[in-house]
Design goal:
- The chain is of the alpha/beta class and about 260 residues long.
- The chain is about 40% helix and about 25% strand.
- Strands 1-4-5-6-7-10-11-12 form an eight-stranded parallel β-barrel, surrounded by seven helices.
- The radius of gyration is 18 Å and the shape is globular.
């Protein structure tokens, strides 16, 4: 008898904030910016109306400079939505994390400090159970920090293992080489991250079509619980409502297969 786990993959739309606008970068390059909307609140509402169960925000100004620039937009978005919202970018102190969580965010994502101040991540995870996420952004398997401007010698899989028992809610892993390219996710790197982590892993980077989303489903039993989608949604290559339906149909197929196995 074969019993298959049902996929619970969550599709999470991304809004990247730069000077208060909704943008996307190509492979994390601040010199390759595409501006999609000057009204991130309206965009956030649109994703919620299309069925999003969670929203992912990135403060690109905060990630690059470590200074809060988009807090007004963050507060406006969290006030306008009913779904949980998470944010990463420039969260490098206990005080900053506390301020953001007080803005109505469900989760904050720690990236640079995961390497520079790992004890801070553990401390925050204890103070705010279920609300701290570690963001591991990697290129060629090694972690990049400070808005992807600096490259470290730390292996992404080693960092994932380090925080597996820290009490964090999840790990978001971004493959910089595929981010914003629409060329498909780096499945090998994602598999390695999922195998290295004992907490849920959220994929990010490279999604360009429905097939890319479906290609992630075999990794769900390893712990890949969600996928962040940005440019493909804005370009219209992926329809959010249709994608959610497609995953629901995949779950139904899993139920059918499981029933047949039991019979």
């Amino acid at each position: 008898m074969v019993v298959r786990r049902l996929p619970v993959m969550e599709i999470i739309p991304a809004i990247d904030l730069l000077d208060g606008a909704c943008v996307r970068l190509h492979q994390g390059d601040y010199d390759q910016v595409t501006r999609f909307s000057d009204d991130p609140v309206a965009q956030a509402r649109s994703w919620q109306e299309q069925g999003a169960s969670r929203l992912h925000l990135v403060d690109l100004d905060g990630a690059k400079r470590g200074e809060p620039v988009n807090d007004a937009a963050v507060r406006a978005i969290t006030s306008a939505l009913d779904i949980p919202v998470q944010l990463g970018g420039g969260v490098r102190s206990l005080e900053r994390a506390a301020d953001l969580l007080a803005c109505g965010l469900d989760r904050v994502i720690l990236g640079t400090v995961a390497i520079e101040q790992p004890a801070l991540v553990t401390d925050l995870a204890k103070r705010y159970p279920g609300r701290i996420v570690v963001g591991i952004d990697a290129k060629d398997g090694r972690v990049a920090t400070r808005g992807w401007i600096e490259q470290s010698d730390v292996l992404a899989t080693d960092l994932a293992q380090q925080f597996s028992d820290a009490g964090i809610a999840a790990i978001i892993t971004t493959d910089i080489a595929t981010d914003g390219t629409l060329a498909g996710p780096n499945l090998d790197a994602l598999r390695a991250m999922a195998q290295a982590s004992t907490v849920p892993v959220i994929a990010s980077g490279g999604i360009g079509c429905m097939a890319d989303l479906l290609s992630l489903l075999p990794l769900e039993p390893l712990g890949v619980s969600g996928v962040i989608v940005g440019r493909a949604l804005y370009d219209g290559r992926v329809d959010l409502a249709e994608s959610i339906q497609a995953l629901a149909e995949s779950r139904l197929q899993d139920v059918t297969n499981c029933s047949a196995d039991l019979a």
